[in-house]
Design a protein that fits this description.
globular; mainly alpha; three-stranded mixed beta sheet
Length: about 170
């Protein structure tokens, strides 16, 4: 009944703490809670939920809200969220995604369940084979806002955009 205080408390919690909070309350409490405070849950909090909790939470949201969440996640996490949802709700969500995000999700959905194609992340960092280490590091620093949040290899490509190799970041 004190929404200002609830917003304040939620702002102090990490995404995993918010997920844990949602998992500890009853389904009816969760539904009522999300009606008033869904905007306080960042995509990572929803992604961290156990699937048996996450699916009903997402089904209680509008397609626009779910699309916002999916748009802020990496493709493999976005697929985990959308796969268990009803097919009609999936289509409604997909219509609200950017073309780039929609294509990545559709590509993932085209692979058989439990296959590597379905599970893999589609975001990667590619660099031309003629770049030096210094040029590559400068690029990574300058483009950090647009790069995937987590990546472990650099894909090296030739001028025809063919992969010529990968460099693990630990090298």
């Amino acid at each position: 009944e004190n929404s200002g205080r609830v917003h304040e408390i939620l702002s102090d919690l990490s995404p995993s703490d918010k997920a844990e909070l949602l998992e500890k309350i009853t389904p009816d409490q969760r539904k009522a809670f999300m009606l008033g405070f869904a905007g306080d849950f960042e995509p990572e909090a929803i992604s961290n939920l156990q699937e048996d909790v996450r699916t009903p939470v997402l089904e209680g949201m509008s397609a626009d809200e779910v699309a916002r969440i999916i748009s802020d996640l990496e493709s493999d996490d976005a697929l985990d969220l959308i796969i268990p949802l009803d097919n009609e709700f999936q289509r409604e969500i997909m219509r609200r995604l950017s073309a780039k995000t929609r294509m990545a999700i559709e590509e993932g959905l085209s692979f058989p369940e439990k296959s590597a194609g379905r599970l893999m992340q589609r975001e990667f960092v590619a660099v031309p084979q003629f770049w030096t280490v210094g040029k590559t590091l400068d690029y990574i620093r300058a483009a950090q806002e647009t790069l995937p949040e987590d990546f472990y290899d650099l894909v090296v490509i030739d001028p025809s955009y063919h992969v010529v190799g990968e460099i693990p970041l630990n090298r």
